[in-house]
Structure formats: C-alpha cells, structure tokens
Amino acid sequence: MCKQYFLIVILAGFLFFPAAAFAEQDELLIGLIPEVNVFKQRERFSPLADYLSEKTGVKVKLTIFSKYGGTVERFRSLNLDGAFFGSFTGATAIEQLGVEPLARPVNLDGSSTYHGYIFVRKDSGIRNVKDMKGKRMAFVDKATTAGYIFPIAYFKENGVQDIDKYFREYYFAGSHDAAIYAVLNKKADVGAAKHSVYDKLKRNDPGLDRELIILAESPKVPSNGLCVRKDLNRKLKGKFKSALLDMDKDPKGKIVLEKFGALRFIETTASDYQPVFDLIKRAGIKK
C-alpha cells in the first residue's frame, strides 16, 4: 500500500510540473526588433548569437520582426524563447507575458540607457512645436519609446492634443535610421528617433550634424536587452546570463562586443523599465 501511494505521488508530481521545466534544450530562438534595417541588424547580432552558442552549448537562432508593432503576439505565435526587446516592447512583454529581463548592453559612451531625439533640418526654420504646425512628421513605429511614445508625450505637454489635425501629414518610417534619413533628405520636416542610432549615423556621416538640429530629448530608458520566457529552464537562463555578463572578461567576448558596438553587458531587472511606464502614462497611450 505504501509503495503504491509513493508511486502515485511521484507520478502526480511529474504531471504537475511540466516537462519543459526539467528538459534541457539544444536550440534557442531569439527575436530581434527592426531597430535599423534587417541587414544591418543581422550583421550586428550574428556574431553575438554565435558566441552565445559556443559558450552555452545551445544553438542560438535569430529571427527579425518585420515591424515593432505586435511583438508580443509574435513572441507567442513563433514560440520564441527570448528577444532583444526595445524599451516599450520590453515593458509590454514584461507586463503581458511575464518575460524575465536578463541583461542589456552598455553603450560605447558608458551608458546603459538611451533617450529619444526630436529633430529637424537647420534650414527648415522650425525651432519649436508651434513652428511644426502643418508640417510633415516622421515617427518610427507606434511600439517604440523614442520613435513614438516620447514625441506624443512631448507634443501633448506642449498643447498638441490631436496630431491628425496638427500635422499636414505624419507617417511611420519603420526604423530609426529611416526616420532620420527622411528628415535629412527632406521627405519629412520633423523626425523622432533614438539617440544611439542618431549618434552612430552622425559618426559615419558628418553631414548629418551639419544639416540637422535636435530640438528635444526624452528621459533615459533601458537599452535594448535580452528578455526570456518565464518558463525557460532555470539552468539555461543562468548560462545565458553569465555568458553575457562575463563577455568583457573573455578575449573572444571582447572582439564580439566590439563588433556589436558595446563595452559590456550588465544585469537588467523589470524595475529598470519604470521610466518607460511613466512616459506611456504621460503620452496617454493604452498598451
């Protein structure tokens, strides 16, 4: 009787705890947001994926989202194990999916955050929100902090309650570099994008600094970090987190970091996303 009872308890335990909690994976599928065009994005992340594969013994595969919007739904539908989310998409995934942030990069300037810019051409004559009335506006995507949430909050705090009536036209460029070039090439009068992409383009193209002027900056929010699904094997989470946090101490890791454009990775937690939630509230946007 005791042996039978003991066996039932053991079997019940395995029924209660899903096999995924114990099983080791041999492959991880990681999503990437289209921060810049897909070719540049894959070129940047592929060495990192190869490095993590080597360090953890688990093959890391990458998939690039076609757009920022709907990342939570695609995370579910594609059965992703993790993603390098932007700050808004990360905050949304934390709230709706319970994903766990692991680590985020430290930028070359020593910061582990980014902020948004609102910019115009110097020769446009635009220097404030009043001057923007009736102009063309280039956002990035509705699911971006720097490329939409921040400018909407900024416009509202400066008296613009309805962008449909205020601007002659506005559109979504799809990536931060596309929004910047839209203004540079006079396809839009006003643009919004994240500072890290803007500053990188400026380093490669000095003409950017000569032609454009920044009118506003957002509060700082976390750099795009790796978040993983909440039920991912705990041991595997630890391997990936350690591999990222120890990269700058490994000669191979330093080479990959240089290609990636970061100094190192640091630990990230859900509380780091509070500034994003504050901006969403200021913008009056419902997730």
Count of runs of 4 or more consecutive helical residues = 12
- Overall mean pLDDT: 90
Q: Can you count the beta strands? A: 13
CATH topology of the largest domain: D-Maltodextrin-Binding Protein, domain 2
Q: Report the CATH architecture of the largest domain.
A: 3-Layer(aba) Sandwich
CATH superfamily of the largest domain: Periplasmic binding protein-like II
What fraction, in percent, of the residue positions are helical? Answer: 40-55%
Fold and architecture overview:
This protein is α/β, with parallel strands linked by helices and 287 residues long. The chain folds into two domains: 2-112 and 222-273, Periplasmic binding protein-like II (D-Maltodextrin-Binding Protein, domain 2), CATH 3.40.190; 116-218, D-Maltodextrin-Binding Protein, domain 2 (3-Layer(aba) Sandwich). The protein contains twelve helices and 13 strands. A six-stranded mixed beta sheet has the order 2-1-3-12-4-13. A five-stranded mixed beta sheet has the order 8-7-9-6-10, with helices on both faces. Helix 2 runs antiparallel to helix 11 (251-260) and helix 5 crosses helix 12. The longest helix is centred in the N-terminal third of the chain and has 19 residues, at 38-56.
